[in-house]
Amino acid sequence: MDNKVFLFPLQNSILFKKVTLPYHIFESRYRQMIKDSIDLQIPVAVVPSNAVNDYRGEICVAGMPHILSTYPDGRMDIYITGAVKCRLTEFMSEGPYKIYRYRSVEENIRSVDAFEMELTSLKMMLEKWAIHFLPDASQRESFSSTLHDIELLVNYCAVFLVDDPQMKRMVMVAGSLEEKLKVLMHVIGPKEISLGPFMPALKF
Prior knowledge:
This protein is an alpha+beta fold.
């Protein structure tokens, strides 16, 4: 079954399922889009902008926006929590923002014993990240308690530990836990460099 989303193209912006991200909305067309999304209960899909301005076939994540604050000139601060992974199938209209049909994309995010070491390693890296970026102990404790959710664990790693937008996108697009872990461990995972046959491997 095809569904409908309002499109929010942003350079280098990737939304992930279950992850909440903030956005500052200043263009009038997107302010209207947020209001329409809330009024009509149509989700907003965040997608990296492209030069051809055609998003058919793109995979992205959509969710319902929530307004945090508004300014006298109409600007607003919002957040969106990723709720559904979409493949955009058909351009519907533009006036003033783009509307696309989409089909839901299912993922196989099922933990197996073979990935226990990788998942443990990623969890440790996120907890180290939290020490530096979440100074409040109760915040760190709350954050750590969410990391039992494998999907959140993997997606948090992509959001907080990966700088390259293309690598972030590869994690988001990947359809299985194995594929996602391959990307993450290549980009941020512990590394091992051989120093020769008579020297121990250098690990970092």
